[in-house]
Amino acid sequence: MQRTLSIVKPDGVGKQIIGKVISMFEEKGIKVIGMRMLSLTREKAKGFYRVHKDRPFFDSLTDFMSSGPVVVMVLEGEDVINRVRGIMGATDPKKADKGTIRNMFASDIEKNIVHGSDSPENAATEISYFFSEMDING
Ligand code: ADP
Ligand code: MG
């Protein structure tokens, strides 16, 4: 069993598709084992995306991520890191496969509805950024 962190970003919350996003994971047998709604401060958003701090889109991305509430989730399942990324689709919705979350709901490469960790190491770091072991019901 593997765990990953997913986030319904402020655009997904604003579009009122929190439930749709979660359904797309649950329909594939992926379990939600931790979940919380919160608002990121700009500092907390910058900390979360610190690996991208030298990218040209960093300020815009962290402004966007702190522009409204998000839903953070711990997901569990077999090969869940790769499977969640597959269900999300490519970062740029124009390149995302048909039927993926980003293909169906995202408006652009920045406002792309959903986050999913990209490796076991990053999943562990990102989960602990939002959750203590007591908040996780795996
Ligand atoms: P992913 O979320 O697919 O793992 P990255 O880790 O590369 O993508 O980027 C993190 C987030 O930064 C993306 O989900 C998106 O919101 C934003 N982003 C990535 N590339 C760009 C870009 N070229 N312009 C604007 N925003 C971007
Ligand atoms: Mg990423």
The averaged pLDDT comes out at 98
Tell me the number of helical segments per DSSP (H or I, 4 or more residues long): 7
User: How many strand units?
Assistant: 4
Which class do the helix and strand fractions yield?
A: alpha+beta
Main CATH class: Alpha Beta
Spatial separation of the terminal alpha carbons = 10 Å
Give the overall shape, derived from the CA principal axes: globular
Helix content: 25-40%
Low-confidence region ranges: none
Bound compounds, each kind once, are: adenosine-5'-diphosphate, magnesium ion
Number of domain modules? 1
Walk across the major sheet and give the strand order.
Answer: 2-3-1-4
Task: Give the C-alpha Rg.
Answer: 14 Å
The largest pleated sheet is described as: 4 strands, antiparallel
CATH superfamily: Nucleoside diphosphate kinase-like domain
What's the CATH topology label? Answer: Alpha-Beta Plaits
Strand residues, percent: 15-25%
Question: Which H/E pattern describes the elements?
Answer: EHHEHHEHHEH
Q: Based on the structure given, which CATH architecture is correct? A: 2-Layer Sandwich
